[in-house]
Write a structure and sequence with these properties.
4-stranded antiparallel beta sheet; 3-stranded mixed beta sheet; cytoplasm; oxidoreductase; cobalamin binding; 4Fe4S_Fe_S_CS; 15 helices
Length: 355
């Protein structure tokens, strides 16, 4: 028995070392017990805070019971990978210039789903090379998985009041991914919280989506409104969105723990097509072919051209009034999409142009 335990401890240490070699910032291991998180998750759903994200509820308890999602699972390997690109223009400067488009910094490079899934698969194959075939399944924000809860239990950090994972040594500018495995590896100590009395993220949220510490009403969250919501953006929230056309980083930008964050070393997450410093007018001029070409391999590609134009129309409605801004909106006044036309009409009204 002692030999088996020693072998498992050695394997766990090897997995963490291999993970670092593959570009992950940290690897942790936890068990499958999420019983403490299950009531909180159920309450969040009952309040309707998930909005139109039906997938958050349709899998029943599988999200909080990993062994039901993947039978045979006894441990979860949790991994984080830094994504903040070193050459990106300062986020605050972009947000303050209403004629520029602000895009959440995680989406400036390649689609993280593909990058992390590939690296997690390589880590799994590395384990198989060392011990032979074993049961596993890789996840990257792609299935009913409580990533933050698992990462906290695995010792990677704690859930901040904005509900994202925070690390004392790495802030929050990172992606999370998991490998569900059937190996009884030793588990790591869970992380404790260190937000204290700080309410910076709650105070800065443009739409006040953080309705209480550790609780977000996604229906008010700009990331939800610009990415997950497929229909019309509620009119009362449009002015609050500002120039944020894909996601929102405000709660992370203000978090004091991000002074310890790391810039990414991954080429895949470097800025593409100047998206860190680009005007709303230029983005609004892209036709569908240009959108698909420029956004190929990007997480932004997933929302499609129509939703992209909807978001930019809102940004243009909140921009400084210039002839270029008004003309860009006028050029799409008769867009084929009713959704785009509606948001263009609203934007024109913000510039006191009668539609």
């Amino acid at each position: 028995m002692s030999q088996i335990l020693n072998n498992l401890q050695t394997l766990a240490a090897d997995i963490k070392r291999w993970g670092l070699e593959l570009g992950f910032g940290q690897i942790g291991i936890t068990d499958t017990d999420l019983s403490a998180a299950e009531p909180r998750h159920r309450e969040w759903l009952e309040k309707g805070f998930h909005g139109a994200m039906d997938y958050m509820a349709k899998h029943g308890e599988k999200r909080t019971r990993p062994a039901e999602l993947v039978p045979g699972t006894v441990r979860i390997i949790s991994a984080r990978m830094d994504y903040m690109p070193p050459e990106a223009r300062d986020s605050e400067e972009v947000i303050q210039d209403s004629n520029l488009a602000f895009i959440s910094r995680y989406a400036l490079g390649r689609d993280y789903h593909k990058v992390l899934r590939n690296r997690l698969q390589k880590l799994s194959e590395k384990i198989a090379e060392a011990i032979g075939p074993f049961g596993y399944r890789v996840f990257t924000d792609s299935a009913p998985v409580l990533e933050v809860e698992l990462a906290q239990k695995a010792g990677l950090g704690w859930r901040g009041k904005h509900t994202l994972l925070l690390s004392r040594s790495a802030g929050s500018w990172f992606f999370l991914g998991e490998i569900y495995i059937d190996l009884p590896l030793p588990v790591d100590e869970p992380s404790s919280g260190h937000c204290g009395k700080c309410t910076a993220c709650i105070d800065i949220c443009p739409t006040q989506a953080i309705v209480a510490p550790y609780q977000v009403d996604a229906r008010r969250c700009i990331s939800y409104l610009t990415i997950e919501l497929k229909d019309s953006i509620p009119e009362q929230l449009r002015p609050l969105i500002g120039n944020r056309v894909y996601g929102c980083d405000d709660c992370q930008l203000t978090c004091p723990w991000n002074r310890f964050s790391h810039l990414t070393e991954q080429p895949d997450f470097q800025v593409r097509h100047g998206l860190d410093n680009i005007s709303l007018v230029e983005l609004f001029s892209w036709d569908e072919a240009t959108f698909k070409d420029r956004m190929a391999g990007s997480a932004i590609y997933r929302i499609g051209h129509v939703q992209w134009l909807r978001n930019i129309a809102v940004g243009l409605g909140n921009a400084r009034t210039t002839p270029e801004v008004v003309q860009a909106l006028e050029d799409r006044r008769h867009d084929p999409s009713e959704l785009v036309r509606e948001h263009v009409a609203w934007a024109l009204k913000q510039h006191e142009i009668q539609s």
